[in-house]
Design brief:
Radius of gyration: 21 Å
CATH topology: Myeloperoxidase, subunit C
Strand order of the largest sheet: 4-1-5
Number of helices: 18
Number of strands: 9
CATH architecture: Orthogonal Bundle
Helix content: 25-40%
Bound molecules: protoporphyrin IX containing FE
Strand content: 5-15%
Largest sheet: 3 strands, mixed
Shape: globular
């Protein structure tokens, strides 16, 4: 039986032992908020703007599936969501309410550690969260349940027994969780729990930094950041609280890193027998937080470049429009009494941005430029080309173009400057700033262990990618 050495799963076992749960914060606390710039006097005015842009039938609603595909394999959407659930969880701020002050934002708890430590898989470790672990084989994570051995473990009510409940919010992210549970179990062979966990964490961090971020970020910004890291002049902003703990910037969690919402499709293939299912499919009762029926067990070959001659679906373009499925979120996610607007993820993102006091896209672009990022502070985001834009009242249009809500700005930047294939420079800078800080702040991460390299038995094509993990776990465990 392999031995779990640490005394407290919350510290040693997860790696980055100096990091614990922290709070939210702002990258640029001195900037005026979007609401200040826009002249918002009351919450209802912010709601009105959020509804025009993000409500059902609004500018961000892809009602007719007009958003083209990107070249990014669709599985990365759920990998991106999986990462989100590893690093950020705001369960305290209210969607409807007045704008919070900077001090209130700084006191808002982030219920995930701002660290790529996979707490969504390991929880706080076998001592603190033993229900995640197989009691008969120390160090292995539980996999499967009575209805489907290819699903995450579940209790009698069907609720997933996993490190972060949101990794059961749709069947694809749930199956992504399963992929990493299995990856850990397979890496347990010949290793102690701590060794396996470290090995899994490093492979995961490698994919985040060298595969995922390279795919989704502007190459000029990505290369700039790699050079700045080599020059030891990175990160550019202070992302720590008074106690030296990393905090989670709201510019990232409420705007830039929500870019994955634009990549979501309304329909996906599950496997060969079910090539077209809705993201939330009433026919199978898979409306979120539910058992994955065995017949819908996801075959990643249809969403990822696992095999050379297998066609797979791609993510939707990174642009300003969100799939219909996200504009009409089902009850298990938003509750049965949610209003039409509150069911729309675009609306929620915009209203949450107001409540948390985010600055406008233009202000954040300028602040990043001042930090040294090579980007244009006044790009042409071609607002007039947006379907429905010219139908907005002229005065409102002019104000929105001058003071654009950050989330909308960043997604439009992706659609225009990144041509839907990747994020624009401002969103890329925010992502790299925060991911870079998370990896550099941690004494025990791939950026601090330059000698560590992915196992060639996992990374069969030399460059480790997400497809390697899918291939590797497919073999057994
Ligand atoms: C696949 C379908 C997805 C659904 C249904 C979904 C749904 C949600 C919902 C309901 C929220 C809370 C919104 C609020 O009230 O403010 C949220 C937050 C968030 N989502 Fe998603 N999401 C999805 C995919 C993604 C992806 C792919 C990413 C990343 C690239 C992502 C990143 C985030 C982030 C960063 C938050 C804020 C988390 C926090 O700090 O609490 N989501 N999402």
């Amino acid at each position: 039986m392999s031995k779990v050495k640490s005394m407290h799963g919350m510290t040693k076992v997860r790696g980055c032992s100096h990091l614990s749960l922290g709070n939210f914060c702002k990258l640029f606390p001195k900037l005026p908020t979007w609401a200040d710039d826009f002249g918002i006097k009351a919450e209802c005015e912010a709601e009105e703007v959020a509804a025009v842009l993000g409500g059902p039938g609004g500018i961000m609603h892809d009602a007719n599936s007009d958003s083209p595909d990107s070249g990014i394999p669709a599985a990365y959407t759920f990998f991106a969501q999986f990462i989100d659930h590893d690093i950020t969880l705001d369960a305290a701020s209210k969607l409807h309410g007045p704008e919070l002050t900077n001090q209130q934002v700084d006191h808002l708890p982030n219920l995930r550690s701002a660290s790529l430590d996979m707490d969504c898989v390991y929880g706080f470790g076998p001592e603190a969260n033993p229900f995640l672990y197989d009691q008969s084989q120390a160090g292995r994570l539980l996999v499967g349940n009575k209805d489907n051995k290819n699903d995450v473990p579940r209790n009698k009510e069907g609720r997933a027994l996993i490190g972060d409940p949101r990794n059961d919010e749709n069947i694809f992210v749930s199956q992504m969780q399963l992929m990493f549970l299995r990856f850990h179990n397979r890496r347990m062979v010949g290793r102690s729990f701590e060794e396996a966990q470290e090995d899994v964490r490093y492979h995961y961090q490698w994919i985040v930094w060298y595969d995922f971020l390279k795919r989704v970020c502007d190459p000029k910004i990505y290369d700039y950041v790699q050079t700045e890291i080599k020059n030891h002049s990175y990160p550019k902003c202070t992302i720590t609280d008074k106690c030296g703990r990393l905090c989670m910037p709201v510019e990232f969690s409420v705007a830039a890193y929500r870019f994955g919402h634009t990549m979501v499709r309304s329909v996906y293939p599950a496997n060969c027998d079910y090539p077209v299912i809705d993201l939330f499919d009433e026919r199978f009762g898979t409306l979120g937080f539910s058992t994955v029926p065995p017949k819908l067990t996801v075959d990643w070959r249809f969403l990822l470049d696992v095999e050379p001659c297998q066609d797979y679906v791609k993510s939707k373009a990174i642009d300003h429009i969100l799939a219909d499925e996200l504009i009409r979120l089902p009850n298990p996610i938003v509750g049965q009494f949610a209003s039409e607007n509150d069911r729309s993820l675009a609306f929620r993102n915009l209203l949450r941005s107001y409540v948390l006091g985010l600055a406008s896209g233009q202000s954040v672009a300028k602040a990043l430029k001042d930090k040294g990022y090579p980007l244009d502070v006044n790009p042409d985001l071609k607002f007039d080309d947006i379907p429905g834009w010219l139908c907005l009242e002229k005065k409102q249009r002019e104000k929105l173009e001058k003071h654009t809500p950050l989330f909308f700005y960043l997604m439009r930047e992706g659609g225009v400057l990144g041509e839907g294939e990747r994020l624009g420079p401002v969103a890329s800078a925010i992502l790299l700033e925060v991911f870079g800080a998370m990896l550099l702040h941690c004494k025990d991460s791939i950026l601090k262990k330059p000698k560590w390299k992915p196992d060639p038995c996992v990374a069969v094509n030399k460059e480790l990618t997400l497809a390697d993990i899918a291939r590797y776990v497919n073999k057994d465990c």
